[in-house]
Amino acid sequence: MTATSDVAAQRLATDDLLRSVFRRHAAGVAVITGTGSSGPVGFTATSLTSVSARPPLLSFGIGTGSSSWPALAAAEYVGVHVLGEHQRELAATFARSGADRFGAPTAWRPGPHGVPVLDGVLAWLVCRVAARVPAGDHRIVLAEVLTGDPAGAGGPLLYHQGGYTGLRD
């Protein structure tokens, strides 16, 4: 059996260690949207997870310091958008602090339950928030899928090593 790394080089748990390890973990990219008292809000997430098929539940994490958190802390419904590899700029816009996320060139429309639905994504869902679970400086949001559309074209956008990329054959 071959070791993949030197066990003697191990490091104690820190936020830097966690970030360094997860930079090596490729993750799908999603944008989560909602509506707050000041209008639409949204952020880029790589923490999207399928939780249950019956009932259809998913989860995502959001930092409590995020500008979107106050609106999403109170939102009853959220939009979940799976981004395609052609949407690197959209992912960057929703990840950038202080950006006008819903201004041009972002194309979107009000969807079911008033949730902002982004155009041109691989798939989207509208969900009812079922729970918000404290997890350190984040909240894990559990949401029940109500409706959506999986019919977008193209390959998925991935986040890896601090940047956006697509799948390679």
UniProtKB/TrEMBL annotation:
Sorted alphabetically, the keyword list is:
Oxidoreductase
Span-the-membrane segments of this chain are none
Position of the signal peptide: none
User: What residue stretches are annotated with the Flavin reductase like domain?
Assistant: 22-166
Gene3D superfamilies, A to Z: Electron Transport, Fmn-binding Protein, Chain A
Q: Can you say what this protein is called? A: Flavin reductase family protein
Question: Species name for this entry?
Answer: Streptomyces parvulus
